[in-house]
Q: What sequence folds into this?
């Protein structure tokens, strides 16, 4: 671990110890996990404290941990059971705070918001993560008042994940249509969507209607050319 990363790790634990849920370092990158109720205070401190001086919010995104770490997907290598893993769900699970996490429990929140901060003055980067306490109404405080760049980032996370940013001045969809149903980056959102649009020549306008596409499993088909898969016609020609 580099000296600069080590010093930042020490300063974060000293200054923000009361608000830190978890702090881990991987590949010389620090991830700081805090409670949603402490997020506004922590972010303000990270921006204004000269020790940190994170004057830029580089990125913000939502995360849906539904089924994260479930057995059928917990692999880092190829498997001979790839089709069954993609076609048959084992269960709905939640992850635990292992390091790194591999399994999930129902007690852990489903949604989180991840922030990437940059300090030009101190040459530091930091990842901050806050979990939404309520799965049915995921919500965290807005940081729009701290970084103006959060405006569109928070609208994007609201649009795609349905996460509410309390205090945002204009929280509305930004990528999908105003009449769009659901949040397409949620893990339980159907691949074909809920509705489709078409132009109705009689009404002379675009109308919404239920999707007409049949859901299908998007598992790649492997075509092998060895003797086990030769057709009868090919065998007769060879003879």
A:
């Amino acid at each position: 671990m580099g000296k600069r990363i080590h010093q930042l790790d020490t300063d974060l634990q000293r200054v923000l110890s009361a608000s830190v849920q978890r702090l881990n370092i991987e590949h010389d990158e620090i991830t700081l996990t805090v409670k949603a109720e402490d997020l506004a205070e922590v972010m303000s401190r990270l921006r204004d404290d000269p020790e940190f001086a994170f004057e830029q919010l580089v990125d913000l995104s939502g995360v849906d941990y539904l089924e994260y770490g479930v057995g059928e997907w917990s692999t880092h290598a190829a498997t001979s059971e790839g089709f069954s893993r993609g076609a048959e769900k084992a269960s709905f699970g939640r992850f635990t705070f292992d390091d790194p996490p591999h399994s999930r429990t129902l007690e852990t929140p489903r949604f989180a918001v991840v922030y990437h901060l940059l300090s030009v003055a101190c040459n530091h980067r930091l990842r901050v993560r806050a979990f939404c306490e309520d799965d049915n109404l995921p919500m965290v405080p807005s940081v729009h008042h701290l970084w103006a760049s959060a405006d569109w980032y928070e609208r994007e996370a609201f649009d795609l994940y349905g996460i509410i940013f309390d205090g945002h001045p204009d929280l509305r969809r930004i990528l999908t249509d105003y009449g769009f149903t659901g949040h397409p980056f949620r893990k339980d959102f159907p691949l074909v969507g809920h509705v489709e649009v078409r132009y109705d020549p009689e009404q002379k306008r675009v109308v919404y209607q239920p999707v007409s596409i049949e859901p299908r499993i998007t598992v790649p088909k492997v075509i092998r050319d060895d003797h086990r898969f030769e057709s009868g016609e090919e065998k007769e020609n060879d003879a």
About this structure: Residues 57 and 148 are 8 Å apart (CA to CA). The chain is about 20% helix and 25% strand.
